[in-house]
User: What shape does this take?
Amino acid sequence: MTKKDRDLVETVDENGNTVNFELFDIVEIEDKEYALLLPEDRSDDEEADVVVMRLITEGEDYVFEAIEDDEEFKKVSEFIDNMED
Assistant: This one.
C-alpha cells in the first residue's frame, strides 16, 4: 500500500496545530468506536506510537475526540494490547 492509498485523517491538536494521521484501524468496545491512528510523517520502516481517539458519529461525519477519562483510556489500551497477542 502506498501512502496515497491510505486513509488520511486531519486533526487539530490542543495548541491549534494541524496534525495528519493514517487511519490504521477502527475498533468497537462496549458500543463505542475508537480510531487507531499512526502519524502520517513517519517512515515506512519506523515503528510509531499509535494514537487512540474516540469516534463520534455526527450525521454522516465522524468526529475524533481525545479520551479524557483515565479508566476509559486504560480499558481501550488493554483491549488493543490483547489484539496483538
User: Anything to note?
Assistant: The radius of gyration is 13 Å. The CA atoms of residues 38 and 49 lie 7 Å apart. The chain has one helix and five strands. The chain has a mean pLDDT of 83.
